[in-house]
Specification:
Its main location: membrane. This protein is an all-alpha fold and 313 residues long. 76% of the residues lie in helices and 3% in strands. A three-stranded mixed sheet has the order 2-1-3.
Length: 313
């Protein structure tokens, strides 16, 4: 045990994603722009929800504002370190930095899963039980649900970080990935990882599967209710409020299931799949919600119109 403790790692080297050297500059600029646009787009959604009275008094858009905060945080946790892969020289990450990155990724990612489920439940109440909606989804309950999602996410992230880094890591120190995630880090452990792999599969599987199942059940009820609406305009408006949520849930859950809920492989598609929940989804969410949600588009127009009026006065 003393010989192992004397050689424990103090840093890791993230190998990043493989790429042709001639594309180094292009990829650096691409991910830099993606990161900047992700922050600006989600900040715009957050400000719109906060400023517009019709939105920030509505639970659905409170959830959307929280989602924007999570997207900004996930992008900040992953993308800056990913961009370092496209610069010259070796850029190691400290052991503590690796622990922190893994914790925040799983904390924010699981919170996002819970939030998507709450958003589906909110749409279910709004469409299937519209007369009871103001009572069932009031401000107090909305606050409690959001707080519960954050607490559950933090517990999930803490559990995964403790389980992963309770193991000794004594070399090599190259993580074959672009960030510190459980499957890639566990490969470097100097101990049996069977229990970790089983707990990770069950824990993440339960979170993903239960959230996805609840979302699916909610939308089965929602679709049945929408089809009972007699007017085409009413159906279109109902689908408009749900379409954006269905799109982001699909873009988020499919890659997550691909990464964590399948037998271990060394496929190069692993890294490509992980780019979706860490980089692409946070970038797309503001676009999806502004393009497919009529109320958000109207709120943006009201906010821009108000700013123009003030500038002219």
């Amino acid at each position: 045990m003393e010989s192992i403790n004397s050689t424990l790692l103090t840093e890791f080297i993230l190998t990043g994603i493989p790429y042709p050297l001639r594309l180094r500059t292009f990829l650096f600029v691409f991910f830099l722009l993606t990161y900047i646009l992700t922050q600006l787009g989600n900040l715009l959604i957050l400000i719109t929800v906060w400023v517009d009275v019709q939105l920030h008094s509505h639970p659905m858009y409170i959830f959307l504002g929280v989602l924007s905060i999570i997207d900004m945080a996930i992008s900040t946790t992953i993308v800056p370190r990913l961009m370092m892969n496209f610069t010259l020289g070796i850029k190691p990450i400290s052991f503590g930095g690796c622990v922190t990155q893994l914790y925040f990724y799983h904390f924010l990612g699981s919170t996002q899963c819970f939030l998507y489920t709450l958003m589906a439940y909110d749409r279910y109440l709004a469409i299937c039980r519209p007369l009871h909606y103001p009572v069932l989804m009031n401000a107090k309950l909305t606050t409690l649900l959001v707080a519960g999602a954050w607490v559950a996410g933090s517990i999930h992230g803490l559990l995964q970080a403790i389980l992963t880094f309770r193991l000794p890591y004594c070399g090599p120190n190259q993580v074959e990935y672009f960030f510190c995630d459980i499957p890639a880090v566990l490969k470097l452990a100097c101990a049996d990882t069977t229990v970790n792999e089983l707990v990770t599969f069950v824990d993440i599987g339960v979170v993903v599967a239960s959230c996805f199942t609840l979302i699916l059940l909610s939308y089965i009820q929602i679709i049945q209710a929408i089809l009972r609406i007699r007017t085409a305009d009413g159906q279109r408006r109902a689908f408009s409020t749900c379409g954006a949520h269905v799109t982001v849930v699909t873009v988020y859950y499919v890659p997550c299931a691909f990464i964590y809920l399948r037998p271990e492989t060394n496929s190069p598609l692993d890294g490509a799949g992980a780019l979706f929940p860490t980089t692409i989804t946070p970038f797309l969410n503001p676009l999806i919600y502004t393009l497919r949600n009529q109320e958000v588009k109207l709120a943006l127009k009201r906010m821009i119109g108000g700013l123009r009026t003030k500038s002219q006065v």
